[in-house]
TrEMBL record, chains A, B, C, D:
Origin species: Spinactinospora alkalitolerans
One of the GO BP terms on file: glycine biosynthetic process, by transamination of glyoxylate
Name of the protein this chain belongs to: Tritium exchange subunit
Keywords: Aminotransferase, Pyridoxal phosphate, Pyruvate, Transferase
MF (Gene Ontology): alanine-glyoxylate transaminase activity; L-serine-pyruvate transaminase activity
Family: Belongs to the class-V pyridoxal-phosphate-dependent aminotransferase family.
Protein's job: Soluble hydrogenase catalyzes both production and consumption of hydrogen from suitable artificial electron donors or acceptors. This subunit catalyzes the tritium-exchange activity.
Amino acid sequence: MATSSGRHFLQIPGPTNVPDEVLRAMAAPTIDHRGPEFSALVHGLLEDVKPVFGTEQPVVVYPSSGTGAWEAALVNTLSPGDRVLCFETGHFATLWQEMAARLGLVVDFVPGDWRHGVDPDEVEARLAADTGHEIKAVCVVHNETSTGVASRIGEIRRAIDAAGHPALYLVDTISSLGCIDYRHDEWGVDVTVSCSQKGLMLPPGLGFNAVSPKALRASETAGLPRSFFDWAPILRANEQGSYPYTSATNLLYGLREALRILYAEGLPHVYARHARHAAATRAAVGAWGLEVLCLDEREHSGALTAVLLPEEHDADHVRRVILERFDMSLGAGLGRLAGRVFRIGHLGHLGDLTLAGTIAGVQMGLGLAGVKVDPGGITAALDHLGQA
Amino acid sequence: MATSSGRHFLQIPGPTNVPDEVLRAMAAPTIDHRGPEFSALVHGLLEDVKPVFGTEQPVVVYPSSGTGAWEAALVNTLSPGDRVLCFETGHFATLWQEMAARLGLVVDFVPGDWRHGVDPDEVEARLAADTGHEIKAVCVVHNETSTGVASRIGEIRRAIDAAGHPALYLVDTISSLGCIDYRHDEWGVDVTVSCSQKGLMLPPGLGFNAVSPKALRASETAGLPRSFFDWAPILRANEQGSYPYTSATNLLYGLREALRILYAEGLPHVYARHARHAAATRAAVGAWGLEVLCLDEREHSGALTAVLLPEEHDADHVRRVILERFDMSLGAGLGRLAGRVFRIGHLGHLGDLTLAGTIAGVQMGLGLAGVKVDPGGITAALDHLGQA
Amino acid sequence: MATSSGRHFLQIPGPTNVPDEVLRAMAAPTIDHRGPEFSALVHGLLEDVKPVFGTEQPVVVYPSSGTGAWEAALVNTLSPGDRVLCFETGHFATLWQEMAARLGLVVDFVPGDWRHGVDPDEVEARLAADTGHEIKAVCVVHNETSTGVASRIGEIRRAIDAAGHPALYLVDTISSLGCIDYRHDEWGVDVTVSCSQKGLMLPPGLGFNAVSPKALRASETAGLPRSFFDWAPILRANEQGSYPYTSATNLLYGLREALRILYAEGLPHVYARHARHAAATRAAVGAWGLEVLCLDEREHSGALTAVLLPEEHDADHVRRVILERFDMSLGAGLGRLAGRVFRIGHLGHLGDLTLAGTIAGVQMGLGLAGVKVDPGGITAALDHLGQA
Amino acid sequence: MATSSGRHFLQIPGPTNVPDEVLRAMAAPTIDHRGPEFSALVHGLLEDVKPVFGTEQPVVVYPSSGTGAWEAALVNTLSPGDRVLCFETGHFATLWQEMAARLGLVVDFVPGDWRHGVDPDEVEARLAADTGHEIKAVCVVHNETSTGVASRIGEIRRAIDAAGHPALYLVDTISSLGCIDYRHDEWGVDVTVSCSQKGLMLPPGLGFNAVSPKALRASETAGLPRSFFDWAPILRANEQGSYPYTSATNLLYGLREALRILYAEGLPHVYARHARHAAATRAAVGAWGLEVLCLDEREHSGALTAVLLPEEHDADHVRRVILERFDMSLGAGLGRLAGRVFRIGHLGHLGDLTLAGTIAGVQMGLGLAGVKVDPGGITAALDHLGQA
């Protein structure tokens, strides 16, 4: 085994590398959750969090995982037996619809090949066929963390509109928020689900729901039992800068600092950086002679790249070699992709040289694991990153 | 206004003062939630967390508030329409039964005066009367954070047994765990609910359920819809040292350090220290000529003391004076006690001299707010703290 | 032994309690000491550090202890065999003149009783007698950390002027800077010596020389060999925002944050707070029936109080009891005061309630150590601190 | 300008990247410098620091820069007018002998071309010629930080012995300690000078002298005036686990943690890692078609590589492009090498992938700055780093 020194390379598609400033901000002493300082913190945060969602509507922040925020979106807007339209874009879309079923909803799960995003035409066709408007919600994962395929949220909105269907539009932006351009208001999303540990560059522990007026209205009659995730008491308390429970104060400190960093860079620059890193990574994959999992040029994720290995190789072995030898974590293939792909996260707090080091590590690791690749991969990436 | 310098005195009954070591531990970089290092962390934690619960049974750790852990206890063990027996010991007991009702349970809410704990005899009588065993669970708040009254959990267990009743026993230890002696296994508690930001000396953001075998069996048939809070997938994943979602990694770092500190002091010493601080505080209150809210000597809380003011005084005014002049946060009167009491938290990471400073601040603040008190309060407290 | 929990009470007269914000600021990654970011840091700091010295002249910052800054003041301004006038105000004044002698200077050391500051009349008389102007420098310790006696720097300046003597005026403000009003320019001090770990609320590791134009001129011909402490290359490099060596970058981060905190409170408020804390402490000492070491009302230190014990008691025993039982550090008697006094530090980042806790701890510790004191000490202090 | 995100690449030859654990360790509260906890810290450190120096003799730790430790080595062992033999290996050797001259020593400065280390034969010849033993000390810089050339300390020792000369042997290991194999005792070094911010992976602020018995004896009669840097009172105080001044406590916390990390990796592994990184870097430089400054294969530094640019290029322009575009700091050419070379630091806390990112950044930066290089540089480095 090689010796290990230096910083770990955390290049999974989340949790991502938390900036030092955010970690230090989180190390401030916890304060009274009912005092004036906390109130000022919450008032500020609830405004500051809106731009990254592309919204002027309220954003509910939970002390929870992203799966908690999934549940919140469902239980606040739907009733037992409601029909929801879901799409098999990958592992996480599959888990979300399983959750829906477990909570008592009826799921239409449109099958997929895990290499494409949601097809807007399919959405339109499905909704147009639902003349009785039994479908109460359309659930889409913006960026499938398991595949590196990004669905086209704006086009799907237009498809729903084209079908003239009143279903709510629920979108999971867990691994896209703060990485890929996103517009809750403009795209008419009703609930945007997200969490802290990806593009927001925080440790895990916060879940988010951005909520449209239409979703808020739906919540007034939605019949699924709920208490912890209930928007109403939270939104009421938020008006006073408080929560109906003790919120995760120190993560909120981190959120304030992370948003500051994000907006200091500027969202358009943040998105462009992610796109550039994704393109450099695909350039390397192509030059190696390997295949990117995503098959549609319009759907390449800016946040991660899933790399498909030739059948005779075990992607988990490659990952293990890379972890042991180069102290870098990559994402595993999940569900039906287990052992077939590895995923390179290039999201969050990331500079060109760390990405270069990441690609260098993958290239060396592939070699050590016996996967024959062209050594021009790293050079192809640098050609992209080093453009004038 | 006096100038403010030095550390804030956070003497509310939680969140409590987080030890510096815990804050620094939490500032470590977030790691891969599916890697071997995380797995080792979880395996270690799930064992290490048991002694403070007094259990050898599994403890489920959620990225949530304490209210989330309340909900988890209910949805994992009960079905819609199930009857639960609750006791009005104060504000939080009231909130918990409201949650139960909101989730679709039927609540028997035994009224109380907010100055006493749960009466074991009342428990026995109620259960004995329930010959049809319609009551599926007895819900008790161990330490009422709103009143400083601690119910006698062991005696209530004996009362349930005396009634020969099969109801589950659910106990909220949110502000008692790590402060007041507690024995999940010995007292036959089925679900112990707790959270991070009190005696565990962590920031808020983690909820806990310690789960008895009987509760686990109940969860197999419990009919309330659940997903995020479902024990089963978590316990399954925990066997591999993982979670079915991304857990709040950095809070887990903090938990590891906080448990280390707690066990280094030794639980019996921790409980004795809390009891000693509580007694010193009551000595001061008595010497001031004020009244402690708790009326039963057997039920004084080791974690906080609620002080009742003469009718003509506004406790919130006193708190405000103390915050502005001495930079100390105290707990407000909640619900029906609003304005009538203030609460001194003396739990968590606390030494004699910080308690002395706390009592000094209360004494001076009472004076400045126009509440006539005997200045012997601080001396009475020191007499207690300084005993040979 | 009592259990130990909560924050340590560091009530020695320095190092003082470092604010959390300063510790976190110091935890930022070290940067290139020749890059533009460092340059901006230095340019900012060298301006920002001036107000606390009461100067518009340059301040040289060393990576050193305060003793290093003593040496710097001497070697930059004096030549082998030069005569310096020093005053035995206590342990540190004694050490400084020993250093002067060791470096090859000739010291006139005016004896003292360690209970008074420097007598301005004595200064005038000594200098007036030195008609040949052989005395090249007058060295005074502003606040004797070993005794809690503060010399009157402005009055001594007037005494020097009255004698019409050209000697340089070197002042040690190690434990007064940022605690007690100080005016380098107005009082015509030539070199002000200080360090980081007292009123500046930093960890130890930085030494300071504020330098008058007259001192700078003296340095051009001063003959003591010097290199590390030489002002000239530092002042030259400072113009570019750099140092001729690698400075203690992370302590500079801390200094920036500490100055921000100090100026946010406002220097007049800072000095008033220290004076108020000192008076409250003396009120307690008096009420206990003990004696404050300082004998002149005009010379009470705002930074610390040395408490003299009756002959039959060992002050170190009292300190040990307090450390073991209450986890509080107090200052020992030094030199000829060893075992006779203990010193209460009330300087730096300190609030009323921590001071109250400190006095409570001393009172209880005296009792436990068998020193009979009136328990009214704490009440006397609170009377002072709690005034409307 | 490209956007900047992710961690800064600090690839100068010191200060180096401080491990997160060290920064967090340094953020612990400052403690009483005369209490038992500090004493235990010092006793532990003074033992633990010895292996990295390869010594069982005392190591004096100063709150100072490395230049302070230079001065300490000279003033403790030499007297005014003493003759010292120095070698012009580069910028820092030049500065050290300038300091010696400024302190009153007479320097024999053997000229050099800044591309070679000290020639052992030259040492032997010089000393053999000094039949009157007027030379009191031989001063050698182990690793010239300005050139990336490492002198052969063991061979020079043998040369001194071969000449039968009694001169003291003073060695600067500022940028070699913890990077390149070093043996104070075995090589008969009398004073080893070092500091914190290079291979020891700490922020700047600590200087070191490892001291041989012969040097200690010399210090008894050495006549240069000294006080702050005087070994004697420090060594006396160290026996009690203390210092005669307030040491830089929080940097000592960091030192403890840094040594733990270093020894956990194991010194032989640490040295091998540095050598491997240096070789990979030289492989890249060669493949680019550029020249490494160091001309002797036996003298390549394991800590940094200085790269010589073709005459028509300005190395400072290259560095500026790299800083602005890729957020990486490289070392400038110093003294006579200004603008002619840039220096890549590959020392301290550094992993293979960060080195790969560093080389990638240099390669891209050279291209953007108009220096024509073969893009095979990065691949050549990866060939080296990725060997089975």
